[in-house]
């Protein structure tokens, strides 16, 4: 199973991002938000959560644009790659899967025609950054807003709210409250 096939088949480890405030400290303003509430605050928060990525992919698949988030995830993983040989292999997989004119899951980005296989000879962690940024902005200003209005998102939000309001959840909250208020 190749790296790009693993990504397409959903067996790839989730990507985690750290959001920092203006002073470089990990952001704590959204720590109390969970699930759909957190997803609704930003695309970055959505992409931090494996369940959010799963639901967003499900939505993008219906819109025939799942390749966008897959490319973004592949680029995030590529940045962590160590060693020239591994970088060359992963860069080639990303190129062949998403950027080549014969790509199976081609993304539509500006400057793509100027990319050639020769850049794969000397890979570096940020070699796809401009293209990844284009795809991120495309998702952020196009797909993401539709996702927040989609049945996939709204149904997931509704089921979360039902779980929070269930008698079991309220009983657990009361038990926790008694423990901490003694």
UniProtKB/TrEMBL annotation:
> Which residue stretches, if any, does this entry annotate as coiled coil?
none
The GO terms describing molecular function are:
G-protein alpha-subunit binding; GTPase activator activity
> What InterPro entries is this protein classified in?
RGS, RGS10/12/14-like, RGS10_RGS, RGS_sf, RGS_subdom1/3, RGS_subdomain_2
Using the record's annotation, list all stretches that form the RGS domain.
42-153
* Tree of life domain: Eukaryota
CDD domains for the chain? RGS_RGS10 (cd08741)
- Residues of the region (Disordered) are 158-182
Query: Any idea which UniProt keywords this protein has?
Result: GTPase activation
Give a GO cellular-component term.
Answer: cytoplasm
Question: PROSITE patterns of this UniProt entry?
Answer: RGS
Gene Ontology biological process terms, A to Z: regulation of G protein-coupled receptor signaling pathway
Q: Where is the signal peptide?
A: none
Under PANTHER family, the record lists: REGULATOR OF G-PROTEIN SIGNALING LOCO (PTHR45945:SF3)
Question: What name does the UniProt record give this protein?
Answer: RGS10 protein
Q: Which organism is the protein's source?
A: Melanocharis versteri (Fan-tailed berrypecker)
């Amino acid at each position: 199973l190749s790296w790009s096939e693993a990504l397409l088949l959903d067996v790839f480890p989730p990507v985690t991002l750290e959001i920092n405030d203006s002073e470089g400290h990990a952001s704590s303003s959204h720590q109390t938000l969970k699930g759909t509430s957190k997803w609704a605050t930003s695309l970055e928060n959505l992409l931090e959560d494996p369940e959010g990525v799963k639901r967003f992919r499900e939505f993008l698949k219906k819109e025939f644009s799942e390749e966008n988030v897959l490319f973004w995830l592949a680029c995030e993983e590529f940045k962590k790659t160590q060693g020239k040989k591994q970088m060359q292999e992963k860069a080639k997989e990303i190129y062949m899967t998403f950027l080549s004119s014969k790509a199976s899951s081609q993304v539509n980005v500006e400057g793509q025609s100027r990319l050639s296989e020769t850049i794969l000879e000397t890979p570096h962690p940020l070699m796809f950054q401009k293209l990844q940024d284009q795809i991120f902005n495309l998702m952020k200003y196009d797909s993401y807003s539709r996702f927040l209005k989609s049945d996939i998102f709204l149904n997931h939000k509704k089921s979360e709210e039902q779980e929070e309001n269930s008698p079991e959840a309220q009983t657990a909250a009361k038990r926790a409250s008694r423990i901490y208020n003694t």
